[in-house]
């Protein structure tokens, strides 16, 4: 956060919070105001499974759940039912899936010392969830999480962990994956250690974490009581099929099994959304680009560029990678901008001036958009820290736009 604050406080940086691209200001208007526009708004929608029962009550996306417990204003009213079942199924085994499982299984006395939203903590204190199943289509050698996040959930005190040892058997293709990928190798080693060191059965009242591999959801099961609530997941067992050097995909075996549960959290990937005036590949969920330079068409013609328009992050390459991946991605885009400036592809401010900051402020003011500068964000930060100090936690999140704007404009 200190690095972000340092950048935001730079005299050449202007921060405009509470501004929505597409409604507060259009992309075409931004391009008229600035010589260079970089789109880095990520992926805030969810991939759908497209299977029967997906919209039963009790099924949520992991993104919604993360917003809920992190205090995002758009997630405050999610109200997941944590009382009516003792079993939750999480579809996916990436870092987000692990974090969601950690929140469900961690002691609330530990969570109370974090910056978790108070409404989430109160709900978790009344939770009946005792068993969490993390389900993935492929095997432990392909698990999409990183060692740091896996180590954190495996380290939860008094947690029973179950992994079928047969799932840990490695094929020659798995051996190749683990040999060439340090992240996957460390994750596999942690899972293997957890499997061999766990007791054969949980003790009474012990929370349970089950890693389930080689399963893909086929449909969601209705409770059958007319309530429209989820009662379980119908899974097809899978196996890995080699489709090229070092690449395996999960394919169905035609064998099925059911897993009863009352809560399902889908952590199967995020999806970027487009805005008016932006070339967008809806199939891949990314902006077509070459090294961050936005292409005018999705066909990939490198000669047809949207001059002055760039992209980075998940919007550029899809929702994959860690913070370091985004760093390299941003560096590539910045290098493209720098190269285009030096080669005269972008008109310099001295020859073709554009309104920039002042023009944007005027446009937002004309539309009665309450833009929040960084100094106002610092007020919000300070108030959250003050409220957190009262409760002996890092911060107490302000979870409504009304309260956020009230503090920002005081």
Automatic annotation (TrEMBL):
Q: Which GO terms describe its cellular component?
A: mitochondrion
Which cofactors are named for this entry?
A: FAD
Query: What are the alphabetically sorted keywords of the record?
Result: Electron transport, FAD, Flavoprotein, Mitochondrion, NADP, Oxidoreductase, Transit peptide, Transport
The answer to whether UniProt assigns keyword Flavoprotein to this entry is yes
Question: Which InterPro entries does the annotation name?
Answer: FAD/NAD-bd_sf, Ferredox_Rdtase, Ferredox_Rdtase_adrenod
Q: Which GO terms describe its molecular function?
A: oxidoreductase activity
Q: Where in the cell is it found?
A: Mitochondrion
Q: Which residues bind NADP(+)?
A: 93-96, 137-138, 149, 321
What are the EC numbers? 1.18.1.6
Keyword hit for RNA-binding: no
* Residues that bind FAD: 21, 314, 321-323
Q: Which family does it belong to?
A: Belongs to the ferredoxin--NADP reductase type 1 family.
What protein does this entry describe?
NADPH:adrenodoxin oxidoreductase, mitochondrial
- Give the species this sequence originates from: Salix udensis
